[in-house]
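request received
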Amino acid sequence: MLNFFQLILIYAGIYALMAIGQNCITGYTGMLSLCHAGFFCIGSYATAIICKTFGLSFWLSLPVAAVATGLVGLIIGIPTLRLKGDYLCIATLGLGEIIRNVATNFNPVGYNSIPRASLFGYQFASRNKLAFIFLIWAFVLIFYILFQQLAHSRLGRAMIAVREDEVAAQSNGINVTKYKISSFVLGAAMGGIAGCLQTAYTLTVQPGSFTFMVSVMVLCTVVLGGMGNGKAVILGAFIIQFISYLPQLTGLTNVIPAQAKQIIYGLLLVVMMLWRPQGILGRDKYRYGDPRTRMEKLSDFFRRDKKGSRAKGGAV
Amino acid sequence: MGEILRIDNISVSYGSIRALSDVSMSVDEGDIVSLIGANGAGKSTLLKAIVGQEPLKKGTISFAGETICQTKHHSLTTDLIARRGIALVPEGRHVFADMTVEENLDMGAFMVRDQSLIEKRKAEMYDFFPILGARKKQKTRSLSGGEQQMMAIARALMSSPRLLLLDEPGLGLAPLVVQDIFSKIKIINEENKVTVFLVEQNARLALRTSSYGYVLENGRIVLEDKGEALLSNEKVQKAYLGA
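response:
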C-alpha cells in the first residue's frame, strides 16, 4: 500500500512537471496542444542516449533533454502555431504521433539498464522511492516557482493577452507569433525535463509508452486542476495519478479493468465541463501591471505606509 | 501641418472578391479625418490594411514618411506598426473582458517600459474618463457598451500614439452615449494633439466632428472634401444623411 502511495507521488511529480509545461501553452497562452507525449518521448530518448550510449552523467542529460525538446518545439511550433483552436489541436496531435513513430523506428526495442543517476556519490536506485520523491518534487518546486514568476512577468502578461484576444494584443504592440512560440518552446522543454526524470527512475525507455493517452492525461491534468493556475495543475496531477492507480490501491485489479481509468477520465472531463469549466481551483488571479518583485512590494508597502502618515500629518 | 498617413493606390482582395480598389487618401497631422460608407463598402478593411492585418494586392501605405505596408512580405506586422505610433481601436472594441479596467490599461501600455509613466497616464485616463476611474477594479465584462468603448479608447491612448484609428466607435450604442464619445474624441484631438482617423456609419456625427472626410462606396473613394462641405453635399445627404 505504502509502495503505491510512493509510486503515485513519483508519477504525480512527473505529470506535474508536464502539466506545468502544458499549462504554459494551454492555460496561459490559450493554445490547445496535444503533443506532450511527443515532448516526453524526446526527453526520455535524449536521456537514454546520453546516459547509455555515451555513458555521460544524468545531470548533463537534463539540460540536453530540455534544450532538445525545446528545439523540436520551436521547429514544429513555427509552422503550426499559425493555426487556431481545433486545427492546432489536430496538427499537434499528429506531431505527437510522428515523434512516437520516429522514435519507434529509430530504436524499436528502446533502451534497458540505463546507468543510474547519482548525486554527491549517492546513487538513485529505483527501489529507493523516497529518494526519487525528493528529487522529483524538488524539480516540481523549482519549476513551479519559475513559472509563477514567468506568469507575472512581462512575458506572462503578453501570453495572457494573446489568450484573451489576439486582435487586441496585436493592436497594443504585442508580437503574437513571438509570444506563442516562446510559450510553446518553454512548455515543450518542461515535457523534456519530465521525460528525463522518468527515465532516471525507470531506467528503461520503451517507445510504446508515449502514446496519445499520455498527452490526453496531461491535458486532463491541466483542465481538471484549473487552466492558468500553477497550484491547480499540481493538484490535478495528484488526482489524475490517484485515478490511474485506483485499481491497485483498492486491491481490485481483478474487478476493475485497466481500461476503466480511461472511462473515469472521460466522465470526469464531462462532469468538469458541465459544472466547473474553470477547473477545481479556477484561474489564478491576474496580478500584472505590478512588475515589482515580492521584496520590492514589501519594501514599498512599508514606505507607502510612512508616506501615507506623512501626507496625513501635512494635511493637518 | 504635414501629412502623417498616406495611402497610395491600394487594393485588397478576399480571394477573388475585391474589397478595396485603387484607394488613395491622406491624413494630415493634427486633423480628425473620417471615412463614411455603407455596410460592406470596405471601411474596416481599409483600417485593417493600415495596421497590417490585411495584405495589400498593390499600392503602399506610409506613416510619417516611412512605408509601413506594401505588397506581401514587405509589410510590417501589426505589433511593429503599433510601435511606430498607430493605435487601433478595433471594431467591436476587443476589450480583455476578463481583466479589470486597470489591467486593460496596463496592457495598452505594454510598449511603455517606464512604470511611473504608466501610472501617470493611467491617472490622466481616469481623469478624462471619470467612469473608468470609478470602475478600475471592475472586470471589463461587467461594463456597459459605452463604458467598454471608452475603455478601448483609453487603452489605445495609453501608448500615446501619434495616430488613433477608430473603427465604428458608435457601433451599437445609444445616441447620447455616441455623442459623448465623439465629444471626447474631439477633446483628445485638440488637447493631446493626437491625429484621429475614424470610420463610422453615423455619417452626420462623424462629418460634424471631422475637418476632412472621405466617402467609400464598393471599395472606391467616390467623394472627398472638408467635413462641412460633405455635410451639405447633395449626394451625401441623399445617400447617408437621409435628407
